[in-house]
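User: My advisor, Dr. K., asked me to get a structural model of this assembly before our group meeting. I'm new to this, so sorry if the format is off. These are the inputs:
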Amino acid sequence: MRPDYQLSQLDVLESEAIHIIREVAAEFERPALLFSGGKDSVVMLALARRAFWPARIPFPVMHVDTGHNFPEVLEFRDRQVAGLGVRLVVASVQESIDAGRVSEETGRHPSRNRLQTVTLLDAIEQHGFDALFGGARRDEEKARAKERVFSFRDEFGQWDPKNQRPELWNLYNTRLRRGEHIRVFPLSNWTELDVWCYIEREGLEVPSIYFAHQRRVFERDGLLLADSPYLARGQDEPAFTATVRYRTVGDMTCTGAVESTAATVPEVIAEVAATRITERGQTRADDRTSEAAMEDRKREGYF
Amino acid sequence: MDMLRFATAGSVDDGKSTLIGRLLYDSKQVFADQLEAVERTSRDRGEEYTNLALLTDGLRAEREQGITIDVAYRYFATPRRKFIIADTPGHIQYTRNMVTGASTADLAVVLVDARNGLTEQSRRHAFLTALLRVPHLVLAVNKMDLVGYSAEVFDRICAEFSAFATRLDIGDLTFVPISALHGDNVVERSASMPWYDGPSLLHHLEHVHIASDRNLIDVRFPVQYVVRPQAATDAALHDYRGYAGQVAGGVIKPGDEVLHLPSGFSTTVRRIEAAGTDVPEAFPPMSVTLLLDDDVDISRGDMICRPHNRPNAAQDVDAMVCWMSAEQALARRSRLVVKHTSRTVKAIVTDLQYRIDVNTLHRDASADRLSLNEIGRARLRLTQPIFCDPYARNRATGGFILIDEASNATVGAGMITEAS
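Assistant: The format is fine. Below is the predicted structure of the whole assembly, which you can bring to the meeting.
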């Protein structure tokens, strides 16, 4: 702490996020925190822990399980949740498929990415959640750059980017009608580098796949995808072993790895600080469909 | 590293997007894939140059119509500071968006086109900056290359703006002559304007002193949440009762005598916790938990302050209101919900004193309503008191939002001028 009462950017971001998390706990009946096991949700969960310390986190954690997750991440999720004593709600895309709510994509590059929206919205309705914390950041993607911290969703779970509530100072409008909900993004003002610097400063654990490891991969559309039973490789897509790490953690079918030797948090920070490509641009097949792919999915109720 | 939040105001014509693009690009915050996407789109549209506005205009409708609709937030950092840009659209129909972006800004950059000098729009931007009490204002006189880098043109615009600014309450005013297109005085000092001896825009953003902008005098702690562990097994936590919130003013230390509102009871701060660990002091904008010596009945919406420095406990407030709803207007007898710090109360508009013309600053006392994007001074009667200060003294305890009870929409923002 400096004598002129100036906080570091990480302290300011931490205070802002804790304020947001407490506001949700104070004003909503049934909030839940969306936890993917990715670094952003790890930071969000740590902030929730700090916001209510020494009390327990007063809301459950929800994971939307596509059935195509990295096993390392599921193991990590279960360990984190057990350690914090929070309740875990798993919403399963496989169950949505089995129940006939959605059908599996066909074609050469099927993905369950888009199917998650239905599973998520069904779970929100089933559990009566009125607020969901998400780890999205505004620096990730241009539609997100315009989204509010408290982002209103109508009874169909839809986002209307042209009709967002003005958000001034740190005053958030939390009023809802039955069936509507709010997505809350406490990390809105964090960048990828801020997230990693906070992980380093607080000594937070993240899944092992964020660090360099050997993996069987193949190349598709410039992305390195994991060779797994969930993805059919074409004849022209030979698998090979590479030293890689993941910059984002999502579904195995659409999350690409990057070639990297960064094996520790400081090495990852050095790599992130020097990179010239955005994390989603480098690792997400789901954003490549069109210029407004994220906006279109968000309108339907995506994360 | 500390952080500066700044808002940019001006239209595409003034070169605002080019300026932001230049700041991001020159500080290496535009990524290769983003630039590639923008170049591709520019090419597809048959534009002859890479349109950097596409970097900030993220929504489908914005891209289709070539306009900025909403506040976009952009991030970049230099070794000295992290910056958050609230990029706000310039046209009058987006006044509410500029008000939104300015509400949290430490600094505002208002752009003018050197060829046109001050316009109605630049006066409006300066007025809104002053109204929202953004502590620092930079008038960036852009397109200096198109006026032959003339010192005379720059001086004339500065003089005209200074004369206008004396009618406003602007804390710190800086003028920078730039050419966003060529990069003059944006990141590096320009060789084309040897007569200018001030810093480049980025240098100013990196060095402007913001620590003293916060109110570190009046202790204000709006209670946001009461932390009560339910762990009956842990005896140490049995009596734990912490009051969580974000410090809105002053410096609080353990041992300080504090006063609780509305009860008026005094007690002492025993400990202060931040993110789970003890800290020696708390000041804005820290989120902390206070532990107090005496068992006082305190809940969300209450205020903790110092015994001899209290906020107003007001049920009648006069405020400058910016109206943000297209569906309805503000008028006498309008019934609304006020959210102020952590307290939410009902309100009725008892008077509309005047509407202000945001271009000329003319006050129209005959106005009977405020429509979308209009600003005026109104008086509100509240069902319960709020603990507030004039907005000029403290942005956190002087600002509030207005919510329509029927639609749940945020329909306005208020800045308290007087309270009783």
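One thing worth pointing out at the meeting: The beta strands of chain A are 31-34, 61-65, 88-92, 131-133, 150-153, 181-184, 213-220, 223-226, 240-246, 257-259.

User: Perfect, thanks a lot.
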